[in-house]
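tool_call predict_complex ligand=zinc ion
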Amino acid sequence: MIEMVTAVTPRKLRPAPEPLGNFIRPGYNDHTVIAQALAEGRGSGSGLVINPLHADRQRPLIEHARAAGVETILDSKSLELSAPGGYAMHGVPELPWAAAEGMHSPLILSGMEGGRLVRNLSEYAAEAQVSAILAPTHFLDDAESPWWTIDASLTRRLRQNLNELEMTSALIYYPVMVRTSTLMNPAVMAQLIDHLRRLPVDGVWLRLHPFGTTKSGPLVLKRYLQLCRQLHALGIPIVAEHSGSVGVALLAFGAVGGIESGVTFTDTVNLDGVLRPPKPDARSFAPAPRVYLHQLSAFVDAQTARELLSKRGMKALHGCQDTACCPRGWVDMVANPRQHFLRQRAREVAQLSAMPFSLRPGYYMENFLRPASDRAMRAAEFEPSLAAVRKRLDSWRGTLGADLEQHSEFTISEPAAGRRLRVRPSA
Ligand SMILES: [Zn+2]
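tool_result ok
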């Protein structure tokens, strides 16, 4: 009998970096595609933000998400409950933790009502079995806002209530909702860091107004990077809310450990609609999903996508070549825009997650941003509206390139990996 001797060099096992957060906020009509993604084990993102206003459609997702190791984060809708535009939205005054007296105000929530809010919110979370909650925080106008103290108290009581309901493993994420200009004041930033250090929170969700993929000029992006880096002192994950495509750049540069956006929408923070009184003719409607041009990290409507892709050379440049994503290429990309977006965004985040941090910024610059800006130039010849996309990509290149030159090393956010969750997605 011949003994087989195989020369096996033991492979050094390096612990894989913890996955970055890819949070998806499903809209009214997105529950079906998310359910499908959860069943397939791909494209659902690492966490779903559950909207209690769409409970009928979204609560059934929670159990499937848990089985798939995907986080479920209950949105407390605290901003909507405390601002005129938000309070006028359908269903908001009827939430179980809304106050009988009307819109939440500092006066109402500093009394007994605050305790009632937290109790009802915690009970809802326990019953729904979500894995995390967005703390009921409010818009901070300035350093003197009464919400600082009230929100701290609500958050502490939330932790206590959750623990009493045997939800000790449920995470609390703290939404910081503030104007970028307010946070640029170093005293306010110092106050925020001190404030957050004292709270039992597992992550900071940044809702900086205004910000987003289409509102990320050179100065805004630079400021966002700076503000995030100051928050790294907290040692907990930072998540860029409604950040969309620019969020992927923030992830690559380590500014945040997670991003959050809607399904082809909600990639911009603009709180005006919530904070201001509603317009008399305001109506909410669910628009048709946009088509994700993943090579440009940009969205266009279905008609524009069809026209662009019918032009010479454009199918090869912008059609989805990923047969695991869109087996029929560009046809599927336009026919199933939600699925294409979810899978491509998951791919973008997974690629960054898989590589050591030090390689991520260079990878993003060379493998995405540089080719994207060349492709955008060609696409804009056929579709003039894409000239704005090209301008945006060039601007990001300038800002991020300068950032890399200025810093030989920089701090990075903890990955928003849902640390208390023990189940991991298998795919
Ligand atoms: Zn695709």
